[in-house]
Write a structure and sequence with these properties.
This protein has about 375 residues and is α/β, with parallel strands linked by helices. The chain is built from 9 helices and 16 strands. The structure holds zinc ion (ZN) (2 copies). The site of one zinc ion (ZN) has 4 residues, from loops.
């Protein structure tokens, strides 16, 4: 397939962004695109709107999975172009349109040239941005048919030179989760707050204490206060409920889980002291994206062979990717593809995936597949 067709596809997807869990038209577009490629098997409605295309080799061998994301963001696309978003308030501002075009390009290569051994699975995953999609795929009963021996994904990286491959041993991106602590007491007349139970002091205390909890971990972890709410704007009423929302992140999956538990224990302790009841709600949970050390030499070989500029990052990224959940279940590798030093950052309203990266992404994935499967 000429790269031209992949660029046209990328632009088409860019103009019709669909956000997490709504990616029906996008999935249909991808399904149509694969019609000429004759995959050996096609799975649809995986974990909702997800799709998987399976290309089989003649000999038995490893099953490799290459994953991209179907979803866009609920952010207005402000970059004027011939492919600007036609959907108000929604835009492909994380470059998942480009990632899809890359996996489509890999599909075209596999259609012409099946792997020698094993299988290659091309996975189009829904709802990456909300951290729901990888979990939905892994929990789908049909996932058993594509459970991989190795999984791969890339993310484009603004701020890094165009085409540069960004590798990282161990943790590539942090795990994170949103946590809302809901406190319930009792409202009272503002003239008699002593007759109610007001959560204000407990919330003030939690705001002070919770961000200090990560201090005694070996690797990076962070608690960020996101939102707080106490009662309502009624001057005659002493508040009887409140909530505090935070984002918890860590480079180590065990640290992340320990930290969540510590926060819950501390919140329960403070709530009890103040005679408040306390509930917890986790949301937008992302596992740590951990790269398998066995795969690093493969990445070195592939980038060397392609003559691509490569750097190894010393610190993981603090943001999260829900590919992390795959990396917790099989040997995996997530790497970065530089999108240019002057490219707007991801999720900025003028971001637009650089089309020149499509070919590079296809070549790297194709190189990985041929290193492992021949
Ligand atoms: Zn994103
Ligand atoms: Zn993304």
């Amino acid at each position: 397939m000429p790269t031209h067709d992949l660029i046209q596809l990328r632009k088409k997807l860019h103009a019709m962004p669909e956000i997490a869990l709504e990616e029906k038209r996008t999935a249909k577009e991808i399904l149509n695109f694969f019609q000429d490629f004759n995959p050996d098997e096609t799975l649809t409605q995986l974990g909702g709107t997800g799709l998987a295309f399976i290309f089989k080799g003649e000999k038995p061998g490893k099953r490799l999975l290459f994953r991209c994301e179907l979803d866009a963001l609920p952010i207005e696309d402000l970059k004027e172009s011939d492919h600007q978003s036609q959907i108000p308030g929604k835009g492909h501002l994380c470059g998942h349109d480009g990632h899809m075009a890359i996996i489509c390009g890999l599909g075209e290569k596999l259609a012409a040239n099946r792997p020698e051994s094993g299988e290659v699975v091309l996975l189009f995953q829904p709802a990456e941005e909300t951290g729901q999609g990888a979990n939905a795929i892994l929990s789908d009963p049909n996932f058993a048919q594509i459970r991989p021996d190795f999984a791969f994904a890339l993310h484009n990286l603004p701020g890094y030179p165009l085409h540069q491959i960004v590798l990282k041993k161990g943790t590539f991106a942090a795990g994170s989760t949103g946590l809302t602590i809901k406190l319930t007491g009792k409202t009272a007349h503002a003239a008699h707050p002593d007759e109610g139970i007001n959560p204000a002091a407990a919330i003030a205390h939690l705001i002070q204490v919770l961000p200090t909890l990560p201090a005694n971990f070996n690797s990076f972890s962070l608690v960020t206060i996101i939102h707080a709410e106490i009662g309502s704007l009624a001057f005659g009423t002493s508040a009887g409920n409140g909530s505090l929302s935070l984002t918890i992140r860590a480079f180590d999956q065990d640290d992340l889980e320990v930290l969540i538990n510590r926060i819950k224990t501390e919140a329960k302790r403070i709530a009890e002291l103040e005679k408040l009841s306390c509930e917890f709600f986790l949301s937008e949970s992302f596992a740590v994206s951990k790269n398998d050390p066995q795969i690093y030499p493969i990445m070195e070989n592939v980038t060397d062979r392609l003559g691509l500029d490569r750097i190894e990052k010393s610190e993981p990224f603090r943001w999260s990717e829900d590919f992390g959940l795959f990396s917790q279940t099989c040997p995996s590798y997530l790497f970065g593809l530089g999108a240019g030093e002057s490219c707007p950052q991801l999720h900025e309203p003028t971001y637009d995936f650089p089309d020149v990266l499509i070919e590079t992404g296809v070549k790297v994935f194709e190189g990985i597949a041929s290193e492992i499967s021949g």
